[in-house]
Structures are given as structure tokens and as C-alpha cells.
Amino acid sequence: MTINSNTDKLIDGEVRYKASEYNFDGEISDTSALFFLIQKEKGKSVATIFQSRKKTNFLNLHLNQNPIWEIKVNADISDFDLDLSSLKSKEIKIESNFSSGKINIGKPISESRIYLDLNFTNLKIDLPDDVDVEVITDKNFSNVDLIGLEQIEKNIYRSKNFDRTKDHFVIELSSNFSSVSFH
């Protein structure tokens, strides 16, 4: 699964699930939004159908940079790469079980919140170097790399200037048997 921001449409992308392939498309007007999941034409021969079943399932999603997004991702038993670096988002929620992934996040809008609920997941999070962050953890048998953050309370870690900046991230992390690193 990949998410990035290279489209002029509001939302665009493609999906492949099992033996079929789909295009995901959307249109927006002043009053409504309309989204489509369109099945691509199936192959005619048995060999083509058999080969398509062997392909990996995937979702490639492209989001427009202009709106302020609320992003919710449920990634179970998957590899994911979310490039949200040029998107504006006030809230991001990631639920992941038995997965591996990378999230590249851009600048916060005021106090942007990130909620991570991870079980048996390996996650790398890239944040901008000049952004302040607070991480609130609830971790069980998990390795969380919080290098560069100071421990404020038992489960709360902050960057040095967190209290002095208006634009920052608050990350709530619940993890079980997972590995999380912030870069």
C-alpha cells in the first residue's frame, strides 16, 4: 500500500485485489464528492487469469495537496509506504497488525495529532527536523526509539521547544510486540 500526493484530482489511484484489477477515481464539485472503484477489463485466456491471481494485492492512492486531510489507515498483514510529506493533515490515525511500514510526515498545522495503534508491527516514522513533538506511549513488549526526546513523565516524551511552539505534533502511541523508530 502506498499513499502520496502526486495528483491534480482530489483523489486518484489503483487497487489490485485477488484476480481482478481496479482503478480508483474521484471527482469533486462545489457541492459534492463522488468516488469510483472501476474494474479493469479481465484477460480472455486461462493463462492470463492464472497469472493475475499470482500477482500481489496492492493499493496505490494519490491525494491532492490542497485540502486539509484527516487520514485513517488500517494496515493489517501488509507492507505500507505512506508519503504524507506534502499533504496538510490535522489528524492521522494508523492501525496496524502484523505489518511493516514507513510514514513520511510533513509540517504540522497548529497542534496536529497522530494516533498509532500497533500490534506486531515494525514502523519507521520520518518527521521534519525542525518540528517539535510530544510522544505519549502505552507500550507492551515493544521497542520505541525516542532519541532526541526528553522524558517528561513516565510515558510522555518531548522535544526541547515543544511548549514554546504553536505548530507541533502530539503522537499517541499504543504498541504491543512492535518496533517504532522516529527519524
Number of helices: 1
Helicity range of the residues?
Answer: under 10%
Largest sheet: 15 strands, mixed
Number of domains: 2
C-alpha-based Rg, rounded? 19 Å
Uncertain stretches of 5 or more adjacent residues: 42-55
Straight-line N-to-C gap: 21 Å
Number of β-strand runs? 15
Strand content: over 45%
H/E element sequence:
EEEEHEEEEEEEEEEE
| Large-scale geometry | flat
Structural class from helices and strands? Answer: mainly beta
Q: What's the rounded overall pLDDT mean?
A: 79
Q: In words, what does this structure look like?
A:
With 183 residues, the chain is mainly β. It folds into 2 domains: 1-66, no CATH class; 69-183, no CATH class. It contains 1 helix and 15 strands, in the order E-E-E-E-H-E-E-E-E-E-E-E-E-E-E-E. The chain has a 15-stranded mixed sheet that branches. The model is unreliable at 42-55 (pLDDT under 50).
